Structure formats: C-alpha cells, structure tokens
Amino acid sequence: MIPLGAYLAVAAALFLVGLVMVASRRNLVYVLMGLELILNAANLNLVAFDRFRPGAGVDGQITALFVIILAAAEAAIALAIVLNAFSLFETIRPDEMDTMKD
Amino acid sequence: MLIPPAEGSPFGPATYLWLLAVPLLPLAAWMLQATIGRFLPRQGDWLPTGAMAVAAAIAIYWCVQVFRLHDPDFLLSTARDGYGWRFLYSGQAPGGALGGFSGGILYDNLAAILLAMVALVSFLVHLFSVGYMHGDSRYNVFFSNLPLFTFAMLALVLSDNLLFFFVFWEIMGLCSYLLIGHLALDKKEPRMSAAWASLKAFMTTRIGDVALFLGMCAVWAKFGTLSFHELYSRVAEVTDNGQSWPLWLTVAGLLMFGGSVGKSAQFPLHVWLPDAMEGPTPVSAMIHAATMVAAGVYLAGRVILLCSPDAQLVMACVGGFTALFAATIGMAAFDIKKVLAYSTISQLGYMICAIGVGGVAAGLFHVITHAFFKACLFLGSGSVIHGCHHEQDMRHMGGLRRRMKITYLTMLVSTLAIAGVPLFAGFYSKDAIIAATLEKKMTLGAGDAWLWALPFFFLILSAVLTAFYMFRLIHMTFHGQARSHHAEHAHESPASMTIPLIVLAALAIFGGRFWPADPAHALSGGREPWFLELVHDPKLENWNPQAIEAAGGWSQVGARGAVAHDAGHAEEHGAVAHAAHSQAMLFSILAAGLGILLSYVVYQWRLIDPARVARALGGFYTLVYNKYGFDELYHATVIRGTMLWSQFLSAFDARVIDGIANGIGRLMSRVAGFSAAYDRVVVDGAVNWLAESTSAAGQSLRRVQTGRIQQYAYFTFAGAVVLAVIVLLDLF
C-alpha cells in the first residue's frame, strides 16, 4: 500500500507548482489554472488524510467534493473578473494591473 | 377738611374727563396730522384747527362754570378726589408714601382762566395760520407741530405736580425748536438763519431747564413729593409759615426760577427770543402769547410759595431790570417783529417782577391780557408782512393805514392796551403790577427797602418806553407816506387772518375788565378787575395743615386772611394797598401819556428828528442798537468758551486718551506677536514634525505597496512560511 507520505509529497508538489504559477505567470488564465492546482492539492490532502484516518467515514471525500464544486463556482466568477479586467485594462497581464497601489 | 362739590354743582368726576379732553384733542390731531395729514384734503389743516376749536369750546365752557361759581377758593384736584396716576408705587407703603409718586389734574381759578386763554388764542393762531402759511412747502408739517405745541401747554396748565409740568415744559421746548426752525427746511429757499435761531432758542432755554430740574431734584430729595399743594404745606411746615427759610430752599427756589428765566426770556437768558422771530409769524404769536413764555410765568406763579424772600427779591430785580433793558432795545429796533419781540421780553419782565414782589395775581393777570394784545399784535404784524410781500423792515413801510384798515385798527387797539391806556385790558394788569411793586416798597420798612424800590422805578420807566416804542411802531408802519414799492401796493389780508385779529382786538379792549357791563366802575371804583377777584395772591400760611385744621377747612382759609391776619393788621394792610393803588394808577397813566406824547412829537409831528437824537446819544445808541452786544458777549464768552473747551477736550481725547488706548493697543500687539511666534515655532513645530515624520514613514513604506497582486501572493506565502517555521521550531 502506498504510504501517506507519498500522497502528501504529490500534494505538496502540486501545491508548489500551483503557487509558482499563481505568483509568476504573466497571464491571468494561467494564474487561475495555478489556483485550481492549489485547490486540487488541498483536495488530495483531504482525501489522503480521510483514507489514513483511524475509523471508517467519507467526511474528507465529501469535503473534497464541496471544494470541487466551490472551485467550479470560483472559476466561473474568476473568469468573469478576468474578462472585466481585460475590458478595463485592455490586458490580462497581472503585473500591468498595478492600480491597487494608488 | 376739604369741601365736596356742592349739590347741583356742575363739577363732578366727569369734569376731569372733559378737562382731559382739552389737551388730548390737539394731541390726537397731532398724531393724525403727523401720520396721514399729507394725504388729507387741504393737507389736513382743518384737522388741528377743528380739534382746537372743540378744545377751546370745552375749556371756555368750564371756565364760564368757574366764573359762575365765583369762589376764590375754588379747587378741583384729582389728588384730593382720589383720581390721578400713580407711579413707582409700592403696595407695602400705605398711600405710596415711600417713593410713591402720584400726579393728576389741578384745576383752580388760575388754571381755568389760563386754560381757556391758551385754548382760545391757540385756536385763533391755528385759524390765522390757514391764511398766513398758505403755499408753504411744509404746510402739513407746520400743522402737525402746532397742535403738539398747544397740547404741551394745555397739559402743563393742568399739571398738579412739577414732574408732569417739567415733561410738558420739555415737549414745548422741542416744539419751539421745530417751529422756529420751520423755514430752515423750506423746500424752495431754506433759511440757514432759522436753523441757527432754533438751535439758539433750544440751547438757551435748556440752560434754564437744567436749573429747573436741579431745583426739582432738591425739593424731591428733601420733601419726597413734587405735587404743588403738598410742597406748599411742606414748605409752610419747614419754614414755620415763612418765618425762617433754610438756605437750601432759597437755592432750590432760585434754581426753579432759573427755569422761568430761560423759558420766559428774562435777562440774562433773553437772547433766544428775538432770534425766535425767524419762525413764521403765527409761531411767534404762539410762543409770545399763549405758550412758551406764559409757561415760564405760570411756573413762577406756581412755585413762588417755595421761594424765600431773598429769592423773591432776585426775581423782582431780574424781572424789573429785564423790563427796562428790553424796552430800551425795542426803541432802536427797525424790524417790526423784533420790536414786538423786545416788547414781549419787557412785558414778561413786568410779570416776573410782579410775582417777585408778591403780586402774583397781578403778574398772572398780565399773562392773560398780554396774551390777548400780544397775539393780536403779532398776528397783525404777520398780516402787515403778508400784505407787504414779506417786508419786515419798518423803514420800508408807512402809510398802511388806508390800505389795511382792519389790521390797522386792531393793532392800534392792542397798542393802546400794551401802552397801558385806561379802559384797555393792559391798563388794569399793568396798573395792578405797578401797584404791587409800590405796595411792597411801602410795606417794607427801612434797611434794604431801597432794593425793593428798584423794581418800581424800573417798571415806571419802562412803561414810558413801552408806550413810546409801541407808538413808534404804529407811526412808522401805518402813518405817513408809503416808503417803498411793497408798502404802496399792500393789500388787506384774507378773512381767515382778519377774524382772529378782530376777536383778539375785542379781547384786548374788554379782556381786563368787561367795562361795558359795569360802566360805573370802569376806571377805578369799588370792584377789582375780574381776574383779581377770582385769583388771589397765594399765602404760605394758607397751606399749613395745622392752620387749615384750626380754621376748620379750606373754605375758611384763603386770601380773605382768616388765619394769619388779625383784623387790625388787615385794615392797615388794606390802607397801604389802597394808597399804593391810587399812586400807581396816577404814575402809570402819566407814564403811558408821556410815552405816547413823545412818540407823537418824534414820529408824527416830527418836531425832533430821531436820527439827530441817535447821533447825539452816539456810542450809547450804537450799544442799544446792537442789543447791548449780548449776542457778541455770549459768543465771545459762552460759545467761544464752550468751543475752546471742546477743542481742548478733543485734543485731550486725541493726545491722551487715544495715546493711552494706542499704547495699550501696541503693548497688546507685542504680546500677541510673542504669542504668535510661540505658537508658530513650538506648537506648530511639534504638530508639523509629527505630520512630517508620519509622512516620511509612509513615503518609505509605500514602495512595498506595488499594486501587483502576484507580489502580494509572494509576501503572503513568505509570511505563511515564517509563521510555519515559528510554529514548527517552537521559537516563541
């Protein structure tokens, strides 16, 4: 049986990839993709901890399902925000959207 | 102690309301005229004139009732009957004894006669003004000031206390100011001289008013009352029926007399009256006959009982001197109104002198008769001026006798009256005055009797002069040939002007003694003139409450002498009085005859050239012609002195007061400057430093705030890592 550490390592790798994408991609769509990766890393952790938890139950898996639904809603809203941001700034490069400093 | 009105007597509480209506009618007329007068037809002249007609009718009706009563002790007083107005009245003090002041109406024989006279003469002046003031640019204003003036005088006559008296006295001062200066605001040709004259009249009489006010303050402080009758009884108590007069009362009496000196134009405050001729002629008639100057004499008559013998002597001498002094100036004047003005001053001197020597009734009698003939003379002169197109210089008149018959005849009658020709009104009053001075001189023994002889000589001499200068006026104005274009084309005045003249001339004949009614007593005879029968010289002892109590009431005291005079004394006194009267009549007829004769010699028959007399008198004539230089003297002393003093005060103000004020200002400015610097450097410095350092911190920190969302994510992650390290390594 694959040990818990392996799941956690994959989840951590996924999280890091997502984080780097969020932090450094020059395209907002990729940033959103990174965000999905981070969420999925969290899902992987939830499912893995649920599997290796003493006692039976599907709480972690159900929570993971909620997160997926959440992620879908979040993706819809975030893409709408990206569209609006594009129409406002005429770019989807996040480093050019620096009006928050004002 | 006091007699209630007899059964069937016309006098009752309603009388007060009728009497109150007499002054209130002109007051109402004034209010209406001053507000809506100019919108009324004829600019509302009928309103005050009509109101005065009604007021005069009421006043005369009650005066006739008083005559029918024929009681020298007649007295109607609100204070006695429990009416009147109360001021400063405290409920805790019974009867308002503490600081309470009550005033009301006093209606005795004197007030009744004076009220009727004032109302009648004022009505006639109003009527005359309708004609005389026709075409004046401020016609409606004139007709609003005139009834106010009349109101003040009528109310003054009815006042039973000095305070009311003083209030109306001051209203009259104001009205005289407004009316004398009437032409100063004329829309077509404003007269600056009228403005100065009104100012002079106002300021000069104000000196007297201040004296009167101080006198009032003195008696109020000592007696706590201003009611005439209460004052009389208090004075009777304080002076032991006139035996011992305290010095302060003498001073207070003299101060109150000062009010008369100002208002009645006595020496040395006479200067305003001739200048008051700047007012329109009806105003002069009003001031000289019915209102202003009569008020001064009336005051003297009312306060004479508060005056000590010393104060009375001053009054007598001032009056006598004024009579002579003004008569001499009147002889050298050429302006017809100025002659009449000086004759008024002179006649007022007679009245004041008479009151001073104790002939109070005689003096007040002269007020009445003088009002009739002087009003007639003034209105007559107004008619002459009107007829001659506002020519006032008698040298440019002459020969008006034929062209202005009514004016000539009425003025001649009045001149005969003022000169003291027997059977005319002025004769009786003037005779009574001269008799009073002579009687005083004869009843007093040696010692300072020579001082008491002075008034008599003054008055006899001025009687000669009066007859002379008044006939000079008649000769120069009406006799001889016309000496100017205007005089040649003179015309008689309209009926509204001649009717008052005729009425007044009739009163100038019959006003002293209604002699057609009793021809047997026409010249001397047993009966006194009506006025002297009704009004007696007041005696102080008649007011002493104990004496009244002892005599058994008011009706038993009075001038019949039941209290203080025993029969023998009264008889002796009567003999002296009789002797004095016979001599006085002789003297006054002689004086009048001499004066008239002289004027005929000089001006009618031209036996003596007046210019030669003037040259012979030289410097003295110039002095008299210049009115003894009193105007210049006052100008050089009082007015210049006041101006210098005000200049000094102005300089003092500019240098010292302003200097101190500016010094304090500068000092405060310095202190404020220091305070401002402290504020700027220390307080602002601290605040600014805080703000600047905050700003600098913000400036350095804002670089972190890039606005790039991804950078923020880095920071967040870095923070999370730091927190994780802290938690994992258990650093804290």
Give structural notes:
The complex is a heterodimer of chains A (102) and B (732). Chain A is an all-alpha fold and 102 residues long. Helices cover 75% and strands 0% of the residues of chain A. Chain A has one domain (4-91): Orthogonal Bundle (Helix Hairpins), CATH 1.10.287. Chain A has helices at residues 4-24, 28-51, 59-89. The mean pLDDT of chain A is 89. Chain B folds into two domains: 15-559 and 568-608, no CATH class; 632-731. Chain B is built from 28 helices and four strands. Chain B has helices at residues 13-36, 46-69, 78-81, 109-132, 139-158, 162-180, 192-223, 228-238, 247-263, 272-275, 281-290, 292-303, 309-332, 336-356, 360-387, 400-403, 405-419, 425-443, 449-478, 485-488, 495-510, 530-534, 545-551, 567-604, 610-617, 619-625, 630-701, 709-729; strands at residues 75-77, 85-87, 101-103, 106-108. In chain B, 46% of the residues are buried. The chains are: A mainly alpha (102), B mainly alpha (732).
List key phrases describing it:
heterodimer; A: 102 residues; mainly alpha; elongated; B: 732 residues; 2 domains; two-stranded antiparallel sheet; 4 strands
